[in-house]
Design goal:
- The strands form 6 sheets. This protein has a 16-stranded parallel beta sheet that branches.
- It is elongated and about 105 Å long.
- The chain is α/β, with parallel strands linked by helices.
- It folds into 2 domains: 221 residues, Spore Coat Polysaccharide Biosynthesis Protein SpsA, Chain A, CATH 3.90.550.10; 125 residues, UDP N-Acetylglucosamine Acyltransferase, domain 1 (3 Solenoid).
């Protein structure tokens, strides 16, 4: 197999996005467009990947990381000029080079490999990915000869009225004989409406020299969708979301309503898990098998075991065990750890805390900077008072402890194994194992005194 290279064009600013964020950094299903392209290339067999950057070069470099070498295009003079920037790295080398756009995030590694294989098997000098559209306005047209072979590619702005009626469009993905590509790039002119050096003109030069140029029509039009504005961004998001959801359903996940389920490109979900409408799963979240999630739940970068139920809640950057029950209306904040069979109920907030197996905080509770052992019961309205205005302090609760309703545990404080904290207590000192702690004023009733307060009003 020949040596293969990939060049991704990502130098444009994207003025039609009307954004301070550079175009290729806009996200599709929770991941920047350029990352989608780079990650798909990474699944194919390429010796080296290059990204041509310009506007926002440092931000794009940071996003790409070590997965590709970035090359700066100081002036944006067209796609041919952009590819020419890689001449120092690739000029004169044998092999095959594929050129892709960083603002076309729906391309798959299967299609990338198919195009390169198609060119190499046919011993062609270039191959172009094409698609057929009902409304091709704005796209470069693929013009074929009478024999059906590729004659030229013409940009929409430069096309004649007859050429604009052609429905086969250039998808913007090319596979070239690398040595020949860089020999011809310097011969591309800019005599066109935009005054730019177009990469498709290399195809015209190859055809003129009677070189073998092929066109491979994809059956998956959505892979060719480019993003130049917010409308196209939303369309690409919709295509990507449908692809992601279909993949999970094929792997045994039930999505009650795929159209209202939003899963990130990098999440993983086990079989027999059921996702209800309005659920948003972000980042690298991992969800085990046999779970029930939603409706109207947001999960961000969490690891969730099997058999867990999350109902109408928000979970962030935390670890959740097996057979845990969360919600409705719970908030699991970052760096929390909830062990097997625990219960975090309605209107409970957990922040940077560890909840032991089978422990329960069923309702209206705040657990911040706390460590709970196993089989702990947290009564309704209990608060771990962890902040003094300057510093955060920890609360430790031992195995089998029972915390009564409306208790305040003023950290730093430790509640021993099996201890019992009476309802309504404000605990400021540690409680030994198996002890009963009561910290509340003795009740006093003053008969008829309410009449003196005169708080009643006459209707």
């Amino acid at each position: 197999m020949s040596t293969r290279y990939a060049i991704v064009l990502a130098a444009g600013k994207g003025t039609r996005m009307k954004s301070e964020l550079y175009k290729v950094l806009h996200q599709i299903c929770g991941k920047p467009m350029i990352r989608h392209v780079i990650d798909e290339i990474g699944q194919a067999q390429f010796s080296k990947t290059f990204v041509v950057v310009g506007h926002g070069a440092e931000d794009v470099r940071s996003c790409v990381g070590e997965d590709a070498e970035c090359i700066l295009q100081k002036e944006q003079l067209g796609t041919a000029h952009a590819v020419l920037q890689a001449s120092r790295q690739l000029g004169g080398l044998d092999g095959t080079t594929i050129v892709l756009c960083g603002d076309a995030p729906l391309i798959t590694h299967e299609t990338i490999e198919k195009l390169v294989d198609f060119q190499e098997r046919q011993h062609a000098d270039a191959a172009v990915l094409t698609a057929t559209l009902d409304n091709p306005a704005g796209y470069g047209r693929v013009i074929r000869s009478e024999s059906g072979s590729l004659a030229k590619i013409v940009e929409d702005k430069d096309a004649t009225a007859e050429e604009k009626r052609v429905r086969e469009i250039n998808a913007g993905v090319y596979s070239f004989n690398n040595r020949l590509l860089f020999e011809l790039l310097g011969k591309v002119g800019n005599d066109n409406a935009q005054g730019e050096y177009y990469l498709p003109d290399v195809i015209a030069l190859l055809v003129k020299a009677s070189r073998k140029v092929l066109a491979l029509k994809t059956e998956h039009f959505e892979e060719t969708v480019g993003v130049n504005n917010r409308i196209q961004l939303a369309a690409a998001e919709k295509y990507m979301r449908a692809r992601i959801n279909r993949k999970h359903m094929e792997q045994g996940v039930t999505l009650i309503d795929p159209d209202t389920t939003y899963l990130s490109a990098d999440c993983s979900i086990g079989s027999d898990t059921v996702i209800y409408p309005g659920t948003v799963v972000k980042g690298h979240t991992q969800i085990g098998s046999g779970c029930t999630v939603g409706p109207h739940t947001e999960i961000i970068d969490c690891e969730i075991g099997s058999g867990t139920q999350v109902d109408q809640s928000v979970l962030e950057d935390s670890w959740i065990g097996n057979d845990v029950q969360i919600g409705p209306f719970a908030h699991i904040r970052p760096l929390s750890k909830i062990h097997n069979e625990a219960k975090i109920g309605n209107f409970v907030e957990v922040k940077k805390s560890e909840i032991g197996s089978r422990s329960k905080a069923s309702h209206l509770t705040y657990l911040g900077d706390a460590t709970l052992g196993e089989d702990v019961n947290m009564g309704c309205g209990t608060i771990t008072v962890n902040y003094d205005g300057k510093n955060k302090f920890a609360t430790k609760i031992g195995n089998g402890a029972f915390i009564g309703c409306n208790a305040n545990l003023v950290a730093p404080v430790t509640i021993g194994d099996g201890a019992f904290v009476a309802a309504g207590s404000t605990i400021t000192e540690s409680v030994n194992a198996d002890a009963l702690a009561i910290a509340r004023s003795r009740q006093t009733n003053k008969e008829k005194y309410a009449l003196k307060l005169n708080y009643r009003t006459n209707n």
